Amino acid sequence: MRVWLDRRMRRVRHPLAGSALAQVALLGVFLAAGCQRTRPAVEVRLLHDGWTLVGVDTFTTPIPATVPGTVHTDLLGAGLIPDPYWRDEADRLGWIAEKEWIYRTALPMDSAFLAHERVELRFKGLDTFARVRLNGREILRADNMFREWSVEVARLLRVGANELEVRFESPLRVGRALREAYPHPLPMDHDAGSPPTRAFVRKAAYQYGWDWGPRLVTSGIWREVELVAWSGVRLTDFHTATASLAPDRARLAAFVEVEVTPQAVERFGEGGRLSVTVEVASPQRAFPRVRQSAQVEAGVHTFVLPVEIRRPRLWWPNGLGEPHLYTIQAEVRGGGFSDRRTTRAGVRTVELVVDPDSVGESFHFRVNGVPVFAKGANVVPLDHFVPRVTEDDYRRLFRDVVEAHMNMLRVWGGGVYPPDVFYDLADRHGILIWQDFMFANAMVPGDSAFLASVRAEAADQIRRLRGHPSLALWCGNNEIDEGWRRWGWARGYASPADSAAVERAYAAVFYGILPDAVSRHDPSRAYWPSSPMLGWGDPESLKRGDSHYWGVWHGGEPFEVFRDKLPRFASEYGFQGFPAVETLWAFTLPEDRSLDHPVLRAHQKHPRGFEIIREYMARDYPVPAGLEEFAYVSQLLQARGMRVAFEAHRRARPRTMGTLYWQLNDTWPVVSWSSRDWFGRWKALHYAAKEAFAPLLVSLVEQDGRLEAWGVWEGRDPWKGELRLVLEDFAGVRLWEVTFPVDLPAGGSLRLWQGETRQALGAADRNRVVLQAVLRPSGTEASPRARGSRDAGPPSAANLLYFVPPKELALQAPRIGIRAEPGSSPASVVLTLESDVLAKDVALSLDGDPDARFGENFFDLLPGQPKTLTVETRWTPEEVSGRLRIRTLAEIPPEGVKVPAPPGTLAPGKVDRGDGASPPLQLFFAP
Predict the structure, then answer these.
(1) CB within 10 Å: which end of the chain, N or C, has fewer?
(2) What SS3 string covers 238-260?
């Protein structure tokens, strides 16, 4: 398999190659523009209203149902079950998945709609085992959550009332039957069922329970339902692919798929063929209109029209340039009918580069010929009940992604294929998408029915997504290869024949069906069989392929191991942290709020999660007894540890060319590895990612008695400026400083300075000093702040290094002055803060506004160096000043120890708001 894989990864395929182009060459020629009066060929009606839900043997009185939706959310909406996210209620709702449920609605039909030549009933998603009946006749049996289903129903519909019924069987009962019928068991993780069944069902794996999510196995019409009536001709697909790029021109291929009815050929054709014209145009006039005509038979035909754009504006990943999108329209005319589609296309090339090198084998992405260091995270569904995720939820997600300077997201294989809006937003914001097929942590059956279902699923999803410029890679699965080869799955069979059969089924899907589907439907993109191909215990995993390094967390290794364990591409790794306390309070009662309470533990799905957090915390931080303080310190711990990895990976460029942490978001309110919780509230980790992923990074490292300062720059042009190093104590006394010019190459990482720790510290107490590094353009006087990838002006960067773990720092409770002023919009306030001594790990919040968004948070405030930031809130500046809460590490003593406030300062956790006068604000760098 490896030889085959190597050969496949290196094969370069031209997007115009293959039978489609040859077919078009025979089908059509370019014709001059002409006029033809036509009428629209297609009429679509959404079927989202008027649905009811009943249980077959429970809740037999119909209740209103939401489509798209799920049984769980409909029962919740009717008040028949408690909120699954409240306290530990999720643990008592497993019975829902054992039942059968029926959705019904009435379809009023008029003669004009039924006069079309074809009428199709289309389900974009049925979850999962469904039987569909129309006017009492069964028309469809569905068995795959990830497929689209379309049935011709023109002969079954009648003018007036029609009844549509969708009956869902229990996914657990069907799964058990499939398991019993299969000749041998299959290994699968994260399924607490007795017996586990999810490997036999094409359904979202996370629903069966993961170490960050509940076991709530859903049913329902989870995506759109529509009736599509059409006549004559229609467009069934339209997408573009970049064929070639040159500085002055880009050549694209516009793929237009057309379907023609037999009735149109019979009525308007000649000799069994119909004259069809396909046209591609740019409303922005980016290229001349292209037209092609042909005589075609009834059925589906693919036209490939060449498009040339002079002086193209390219689509770039976030941070490397503008992700420009062209609006392109396609139209088909024939038999007196016409149909039109519009798409947003990006002109770009994207490659997965897997080549031998001095380390082993590269693994990185190249966009428009430029190597890209991937920065981002893994995405899971935004809610356990996916249909209730809104477009605004996705917009907020991508706003947070862009603000954190990310340029890639991995859509993890245990969730769902996200809706179109997800990819539209990725296109718009320049976020590359690593797309897993929906397989995770379980082997697969090899029977013909299962394989046929996977083949259809792959075709549906590839055809739906291939037009998006953000889509960078198709990946077969999550961690299945590793489970089979390194977790002992293969050794779990007494019979070698059974083991061989299971391995053959795996190969059939991930080395047969899926790569063949990508090659057929999306040949310009790469396919990678499994993430990772080598496990974190294998030394080779650091030399080639992508890596899931779980020595930290699962292996108990210290965070510092990230500096030495440098993979080619880190596609998954992480550490847990608590969500915001407002999130904890949202699903608990006051009596639930302790680490050992069953309700809180119900929202910690890792069996040793709290214990692991505490073990790591004790190494570096004081371990507080109170839940609110413990949650705060856990966030600091998570952010600190992950930032070690972020900076190590970026310093290691070009050996390491990607860092995607686990995980970006949550499916419900939970203690997990996420950087933004279920409410979208940022943890300290997300702020750390924002700083560490900024285009310009200055990174300080102390190791083996030596200090190093590194500069990392992601821009496509060189960066010139200066590095300033300052050692000072926690009272702001400057012990030494040095400044010197630096040049950073485009897309480069350089060690800018090194020295002996002993010499740098001199006689200073390492528990009471901090080293600050600042990279700034020459002549800049203001204290630097990392800027967004699209902000104007040259970027700056700053970072701090302490010489002992946080728990050993000699911290004093700070006296913090604040000033609140109106921001640039009515919903924003500008805050300026200044401290008299080091304020370590400043965490800001606003009483009464748990969703206030701080531009910066969980930061260190150096004495005499003011920090200005913006907060988005509904409160006025005066209200913000009165409601602002500030927490620092100085008020978090070890268990049983009380730290008194030093003389002349306020009590820990207090801020000095003064008498209305602004505190003096001094520039760090004096002119």
Answers:
(1) C
(2) EEEEEEEEECCEEEEEEEEEEEE
Q: Percentages helix, strand, coil for the chain, rounded to the nearest 5?
A: 25, 30, 45
The three-class DSSP label of residue 892 is coil
Using DSSP, state whether 641 is helix, strand or coil.
Answer: helix
* Rounded distance between C-alpha atoms, residue 277 and residue 228, angstroms: 22
Dihedral, CA of residue 491, residue 494, residue 498 and residue 499, to nearest 10: 10
Distance CA 445, CA 416 (A): 20
Amino acid at 157: L
Q: Give Cα separations from 446 to 317, 352, 856 (angstroms).
A: 39, 29, 51
**pLDDT tens by residue, 519-533:** 999 999 999 999 999
Give every CB contact of residue 599 below 8 A, 6+ residues apart in sequence.
87, 88, 588, 589, 592
Q: Estimate the crossing angle of helix 627-651 against helix 609-620, to 10 degrees.
A: 70
Give the Cα separation of 491 and 181 in Å (integer): 22
Phi-psi domain of 614 (left: phi exceeds 0; alpha: psi -120 through 50; beta: other): alpha
DSSP string, 827-840: TEEEEEEEESS-EE
Task: Give the Cα separation of 557 and 48 in Å (integer).
Answer: 51
Per-residue pLDDT reduced to its tens digit, 545-592:
999 999 999 999 999 999 999 999 999 999 999 999 999 999 999 999
Contact 234, 41 (CB under 8 A): yes
Q: For residue 729, how many other CB atoms are within 10 A of its CB?
A: 17
Residues pairing with 844 in the sheet: 886
Residue 316's alpha-carbon distances to 247, 325, 432, 766, in angstroms, are 15, 10, 9, 45
Residue 757: φ, ψ to 5°: -60, -45
Strand order in the sheet with 859-861: 859-861, 839-846, 884-887
Phi, psi of 733 (to 5 degrees): -75, 120
Contact 876/849 with Cβ under 8 angstroms? no
What gap in Å lies between CA 456 and CA 476, rounded to an integer? 15
The answer to pTM > 0.85 is: yes
Within 10 Å of residue 702's Cβ, how many Cβ atoms? 15
| Other Cβ atoms closer than 10 A to 853 | 19
152's tokens? 């011709």
What single-letter amino acid sits at 505? A
